[in-house]
Amino acid sequence: MVGLGKIAARGAGITLMSQVIRFALQLGSLTVLARLLSPHDFGVVAMVTAITNVMEIVRDFGLSSAAVQAKRLNDAERTNLFWVNTGIGTACAVAAALGAPLVVRIYGTSVVGPIVLALAWLFIVSGINTQFRAELSRSLRFKALAVTDIAAQAGSIAAAISLAAVGAGYWAIVGQQITLVLLTCISNIVLCNWRPGRPRRSVSIRRFFRFGGGVLGTQLIGYATNNLDNVAIGVHSGSGPLGLYSRAYQLLMVPLTQVNDPMTRVVLPVLSRVQDDGETYARYLRKAQLLGCYVLASVFAVAAGVSVPLVTLLFGPQWSGVAPIFAALAIGGIFRGIGQISYWMYLSRGRAGAQLKLYLIARPVMIVIMIAGLPWGPVGVAVGHSIGFFLYWIVSLWAAGRAVGTSTRPLFVQAIRTLLVISVPAGAIAYLGAMLVSPVPASLVLGVALSVGYLALVSRLSPPERANLHFMIEVFLRRRRMPEATAQHAPAAPEPAVVVERD
C-alpha cells in the first residue's frame, strides 16, 4: 500500500519539475513576443480578457473543486456534473458574444469587438474539459496533468510566435489563447480513463452546487480584485499604459501560477483526505506553506530588487516602463505566495462558504485601495495592489484558522521568520548588487549571485533554516517520503486512485 505522504511527495516532485519546464516556456515566450509585439497589442487583448474571463469562473461554477474535494463521487454524479459544466459553458459563450457591443462601449474602441467574438466559443470547450481535468486531479494522476500542461503550453507559444512573426499583431495573442484551451481539453480527454454517459435526472448533484456556490462567489470576488485594475487603467489611460501594466502583471503571475496552481492540485486532494485527522492536517499545512515561504517569497523579493536589469534583459529597453510597475507588484507577490495556504485550508475542510463571507468584506476594500492609486498611473495601482494583498494575508490566515478550527500561530511564526531572515534581506542584497555595476547582464547576475550567496550563508549558520532547506530539496527534487498519513487515508493501489462508487 502506497502511503499518502509518499504520493504527495511524488506528486509534488513531478509537478515541480513540470512547472520548471512551463516556467522556462512562458518566460521565453514573454521575451520573444515582447520583441515582436507592441504595448498596444498586449493592452488591447488585456482590455477584453479582463472583462470576458469572468465567464471562465462562471463556467466552472466551483464544480471542479467540489468534485475534487468530495469524499465520495460515483459515475452518475460525475456524468451529471459534466453535462452541467458543458451547459454552463455554452451559456457563457452566448453571453460573451452578445456582450461584445457592451465591451466596445466600455472602452470606446471598436477594435475589441472582434476579439470578444473570437474568444467567446472557447467557454464551451472549457466546459467540456472541466470534469475530465477534475477527475485527473482527484485520482492524483499528477504525471498526466503535467504532460497536458507542458504540451498545451508549448503548442500555444509556438502558435503565438508564428503568428507574431508574420505580422498578425494582437491576433497572435488571441491565437495563443485559442490553441492553449483546445490542446488542454484534447489532452485531458485522451489521458483520462473516464467517459461521461447520458445525464440522469434521478441522480442529485445538489451537494456539489452547495459547495461550488461558495467557491464560485469567492472566485468571482477574487477575479474582480485581480482584474478591475486592468479595466480601470484601460478606461483611464488606454491600451498603451495597460500594455505596460499587463506585461508587469504577467511577469508577476508566471512564477505565481507555475507554483500555486499545480501545488493546489497536489495539496488540496491530500489535505482533503486527512481533514479529519487534526494533528496530521496541521503538520501537512506547515509543510505546504514552506513552498510559499522559501520559494515564492524569496523569488519575488529578489525579483523586485533586480527589476530594472531583469525587465531590460527580458523585454528590451523600449519596455523600461515595466520595471517600476513590476517591482511594486512583486512586493505584493510575496504575500500572495505565502497567503495561498488559507485558500487550501478553506477548501480542504469544505468551508467555501466561510471563505466567501471573508471575500465579501475584505476584497472590496482591496479593490478600493488599488483603484485609489489610479491618479499616479500604473505604478500607483501596483503599489495599492501590494498594500491590499499584505493586509489580506494577515486577515485571511487568521480567519481561515478560526473557520477550520486549526491554530494558525505556527503558520504566522513560520512566515514572519522566513520574511525577516530569508526573503527581505535577500531582496535588499539583490538590489544593492544590481546597483554596483552598470552593464545590464552583469547587474542582473551580480544581484542574483549575492542574494544566493546570502541564502547559502544563512542556511549554513542557522540550523532551523538548514533543516527547512534540506526538507525542500529532498521533497521536491529527490521526492523524499513526507510524514505518512494514517492508513485509512492512503489509496488502495500503487497507482493513486480514489475509490469510485459505480451504479
What does this structure look like?
By secondary structure, this protein is mainly α. The protein has one domain (4-478). The protein has 21 helices and no strands. It has helices spanning 4-36, 39-52, 54-60, 63-69, 75-98, 100-107, 112-120, 122-138, 142-165, 171-191, 206-237, 239-273, 278-305, 307-315, 322-338, 340-348, 352-371, 377-404, 409-436, 440-461, 463-476. Helix 1 (4-36) packs antiparallel against helix 12 (239-273) and helix 3 packs antiparallel against helix 5 (75-98). The two termini are 26 Å apart.
Brief synopsis:
This protein has 503 residues and is mostly helical. The protein has helices spanning 4-36, 39-52, 54-60, 63-69, 75-98, 100-107, 112-120, 122-138, 142-165, 171-191, 206-237, 239-273, 278-305, 307-315, 322-338, 340-348, 352-371, 377-404, 409-436, 440-461, 463-476. It is found in: Cell membrane.
What is this structure's SSE topology?
Elements: H1 4-36, H2 39-52, H3 54-60, H4 63-69, H5 75-98, H6 100-107, H7 112-120, H8 122-138, H9 142-165, H10 171-191, H11 206-237, H12 239-273, H13 278-305, H14 307-315, H15 322-338, H16 340-348, H17 352-371, H18 377-404, H19 409-436, H20 440-461, H21 463-476
Transmembrane segments: 81-100, 106-129, 150-172, 178-197, 291-315, 321-346, 358-376, 382-400, 412-434, 440-458
InterPro entries: Poly_Biosynth_Transport (IPR050833)
Organism: Jatrophihabitans cynanchi
